[in-house]
Amino acid sequence: MSAPTPTHIKITVPASTSNIGPGFDVLGASLSLYLSVSATLLPAGSATAIVYTGNNAHTVPLTVPQNLITATACYIAACHGKALPPLELHIDNPIPLGRGLGSSGSAVVAGVILANEACLLGLSKERMLDFCLLIEGHPDNVTASLLGGFCSSYLSASIHDEHVALHNLDATVYCSNNPPPNGRLPLPPVENIGRHVRLPLSPAIRAVVIIPKFELSTKLARSVLPASYSRADVIFNLQRLSVLTLALSSPEPSSDLIYGAMQDRVHQHYRQHLVPGLPQILALTPEKCPGLLGICVSGAGPTVLALAVANFESIGREVQHIWASSMGSDGSAIESEVRVLEVVDDGATWSTSYNVE
Ligand SMILES: Nc1ncnc2c1ncn2[C@@H]1O[C@H](COP(=O)(O)OP(=O)(O)OP(=O)(O)O)[C@@H](O)[C@H]1O
Ligand SMILES: N[C@@H](CCO)C(=O)O
């Protein structure tokens, strides 16, 4: 009997919110909004075909080296001396692109899993996380999307430089239909690139996300951050971070404690010129919006995350109103959508069918 060969792979990856409160590049949570990928393995010699449905579908590249999911999968395969086999891929992605809900992190996670399954790599989840971290370059989104729940994570100092992020990779090198010649094998990442813990989160808490109709790329939003911070600002965030992580686990979360603990001095202020209306939105309080615990930018923005225990839709509408009276870069009012999401326990899940001869 020959070894089983995969015939069909189904992958589901949750979106994520990150930078929660003072947790820039640290805190992330997986959300009940899912990227799904369905892959059928084609006979050798066939061309890979990608069908993409979902948010802003026309902007997503459908060629193997350009599409983030397949480019990632090719790279992971190449790291193991293999080539991604030809596939018929259906990607359905309701996660809005470039809005701070971890679409790229979810795509990277899907790509790593796709390679693992299609090329029978046998990677553990922890090893997959090493690859995701290397590719994404910061840990908050991919840790939450791969592992699920409310996560706190850090990268080991050795790969903290942003140039390791595979978004910069010339994927064409790794995406031919043949395994790359040995001399061009990319170096797999060292082990345990990051460390993480899953934190308890009160089941009463919902993530109200208010998603404006404009994109903000993470690359641009990272480029406006300062290279160094004052001691006062670092202490400001560290103090709140330690209080916030425990305060969010209480069965009856206290807005009195959480609201102040969700303040940040590391990224929001520097990015506010990229998100019109942000200072007014971040000034919303539990007094004005009963049920609100705390409010911040989700990921690199422009989406706003309101953690709340009640009145979810009306909290969302308050933010919408502010955007409706703010002017976007095209001179018109900013339209937005409110989604009330759960922080989900499960991260990425997948199933693979095999041909056994
Ligand atoms: N499912 C997908 N398939 C292919 N490419 C994707 C997919 N999802 C995201 N991308 C790519 O990632 C880009 C968005 O990444 P970016 O890091 O700028 O924002 P984000 O991940 O949505 O937000 P944030 O990192 O702030 O949470 C998209 O413009 C697209 O090029
Ligand atoms: N921590 C990341 C999240 C976005 O991917 C940032 O703010 O740049």
Automatic annotation (TrEMBL):
<comment type="pathway">
    <text>Amino-acid biosynthesis; L-threonine biosynthesis; L-threonine from L-aspartate: step 4/5.</text>
</comment>
<dbReference type="InterPro" id="IPR014721">
    <property type="entry name" value="Ribsml_uS5_D2-typ_fold_subgr"/>
</dbReference>
<keyword id="KW-0028">Amino-acid biosynthesis</keyword>
<feature type="domain" description="GHMP kinase N-terminal">
    <location>
        <begin position="67"/>
        <end position="149"/>
    </location>
</feature>
<dbReference type="GO" id="GO:0009088">
    <property type="term" value="P:threonine biosynthetic process"/>
</dbReference>
<dbReference type="InterPro" id="IPR020568">
    <property type="entry name" value="Ribosomal_Su5_D2-typ_SF"/>
</dbReference>
<dbReference type="GO" id="GO:0004413">
    <property type="term" value="F:homoserine kinase activity"/>
</dbReference>
<dbReference type="InterPro" id="IPR036554">
    <property type="entry name" value="GHMP_kinase_C_sf"/>
</dbReference>
<comment type="similarity">
    <text>Belongs to the GHMP kinase family. Homoserine kinase subfamily.</text>
</comment>
<dbReference type="InterPro" id="IPR006203">
    <property type="entry name" value="GHMP_knse_ATP-bd_CS"/>
</dbReference>
<keyword id="KW-0418">Kinase</keyword>
<dbReference type="GO" id="GO:0005524">
    <property type="term" value="F:ATP binding"/>
</dbReference>
<keyword id="KW-0547">Nucleotide-binding</keyword>
<keyword id="KW-0808">Transferase</keyword>
<dbReference type="InterPro" id="IPR000870">
    <property type="entry name" value="Homoserine_kinase"/>
</dbReference>
<dbReference type="InterPro" id="IPR006204">
    <property type="entry name" value="GHMP_kinase_N_dom"/>
</dbReference>
<dbReference type="Pfam" id="PF00288">
    <property type="entry name" value="GHMP_kinases_N"/>
</dbReference>
<keyword id="KW-0791">Threonine biosynthesis</keyword>
<keyword id="KW-0067">ATP-binding</keyword>
<protein>
    <recommendedName>
        <fullName>Homoserine kinase</fullName>
        <ecNumber>2.7.1.39</ecNumber>
    </recommendedName>
</protein>
